[in-house]
Amino acid sequence: MSNNDMNQEIEQVAAELCLGIEADPKEGSTLLMGFANTYALDSRLRHSALILRLNYTKAPGDEQRRRVLDEMLDLVGDIVEDFRNGTGAEPLERAIEQAEQRYQDMAPQRDVVFGSENLGKTYPKSGFRLRGVELKLRLGEITGVVGENGNGKTTLFRLVAGDLLHDQGSMAFPLLKQESNTKKGIDWVKVKEEIAYVPQELPKVYGTLEENLQYEAAIHGILGEDNLREVGFIVERLGLGEHLEKCWSELSGGFKLRFALARALVWRPRLLIVDEPLANLDFKAQQVVLKDLRNLADGLRYPMSVLISSQHLHEVEAIADRILFLERGRVKFNGLVEQMGEQRRFNTYELGTDCEEQELRGYLRKLKLHQIQHSGVAYVITVPLEVTHRELLQLLLSEGVEVEYFRDISRSIKQLFH
């Protein structure tokens, strides 16, 4: 495609966009953001598109909305001019090469944000001990911590966040402010400037969402136009634009959590710690939050490390890079998700059926059944490695067993709970 063709293309797209903005400014503001992200080389133009979208949503009257609409139309022209003066004047192949190079330059490095060796904490009154935690939290990675309640997950989180002092082992923050790791120990004042902790029990906040987000950014040194830009960025990313004027009591559980995440993220921490974020959410809200966390960890603009705990094992496994499994204060598994089950000696399957256990045992003897137990919800069946899930299902169906639920958990952390 020649330079002339490229310029003609953007002019045509811009003309159609202006018509769309005039016809439906609210929808047009969303289209404007896509246009800016596609064609604008100057990041300030992309940020302006985001701010205008928010301003139109908040405009109190027709006159103010018309003013924002005119600004959106002007911005379209600015983006076209920016494109012509930049990559639009170069061959398309060169533009693609530059875009790929920018992506590689921006790709998050897997630098270690936090590391611990033999980390532990003892509670003398209860006798509970967390011990032997070897942990490395890296930029761009999600580490999931799982285990039954009372096994040390929250204790570990509070140690990493600096809310508890450890009494065994060592810990350090090699990527955070270097002066924070001193001979006298960790300077928690400096470290906490780069750690965000979202506890399971979210504290109530006062005032509107927007006021709280602007305040949170301000106390971390983000002021003026930067404050508006960063608040706008995280609001758009977490889908909070329609809720900015609401107070805490007006939010659902899912949006309270999103708001808590927005407060934690608006000042760009390097480490995000989230304790049981899925506990009080419905299935749809869980999926949205998990997707948000995965996208945030992968972010090119501000990559971070995410430490998350949850009882929802399959959901956490779907987004996590690494899993730490705690049982009675001890580490039972610590590694990459794909390493789970590599050293197993059996395959493990979950089966939901109304078939009686003795009858089921009889059928499964043909496959050299190793063990069968009922979890209260489903049967957990353990068979030799050579028995695949397909063979197991084929046998059950051939015997007329009605299968209501089936899952292969051979490579899931869930098998360690049985």
From TrEMBL:
Keyword Translocase (UniProt): no
GO MF term set: ATP binding; ATP hydrolysis activity
Coiled-coil spans in chain: none
A Pfam family the protein falls into: ABC_tran
InterPro entries cross-referenced by the UniProt entry: AAA+_ATPase, ABC_transporter-like_ATP-bd, ABC_transporter_ATP-binding, P-loop_NTPase
Keywords of this entry: ATP-binding, Nodulation, Nucleotide-binding, Transport
UniProt domain ABC transporter: residue ranges: 114-353
Family per record: Belongs to the ABC transporter superfamily.
Protein name: ABC transporter ATP-binding protein
